[in-house]
Amino acid sequence: MVQPSNVTPLSSTPLSSSDDNTFNDAIDSSSHSKSSSSSSKRTRGRPAGSKNKQKLTFVINRSSEHVEKPILIQIPRNSDVIETLTQFARDYQTSITVQTASGSILNATLRDDSEYEISTFIVHGPFTLVSLSGTCINNNSSTTLSSNFDCFFNICFCSNIDQSFMGVVGGKVIAGDDVVLTATIFKNS
């Protein structure tokens, strides 16, 4: 343990009340010299009548319910990818946008738009999923179970014998191995 008598102050001479006055006199004299030199300088800030107006500040509300959130969704084997996305959006009362997808699919129902009618056809695989993109929008703002969804998805996939397919999803897309989707969920305004 250190004894008080063993502690040496940084200054070898103790301060007295006369030293305090000397210190205050030094501060007063330096402030007088600064004030006389600062009066010769220009004042800071905007001059009166300046056309350079201050910019408005914007307040961003970070607690908004309409914030987009990126997510990853893994869809298990033999599940319908589109139905799983729709069910997810229904359960959480959100809309969902899919940006990318990877994995394999067993079959896909594509839409064939002819001049007079819209028909669908099924392509049987297995296929490697190249891309899946689209949106499923929740049109019902209430939290009832009978939510109305508008879904539109484009898909691109290829087979192992160099066949590639691209089109609009017209029904089910059945997952082969686990399909992983990168998506964004958002609440409608």
TrEMBL record:
All residue ranges annotated as the PPC domain in the record: 65-189
GO cellular component, one term: nucleus
Region: Disordered, residue numbers: 1-57
First and last residue of the signal peptide: none
InterPro entries: AHL15-29, PPC_dom
Pfam family of the protein (one): PCC
Keywords: DNA-binding, Nucleus, Transcription, Transcription regulation
PROSITE patterns associated with the record: PPC
Biased segments, Low complexity type: 8-20, 29-40
GO molecular function: DNA-binding transcription factor activity; minor groove of adenine-thymine-rich DNA binding
The keyword ATP-binding appears for this protein: no
Name assigned to this protein: PPC domain-containing protein
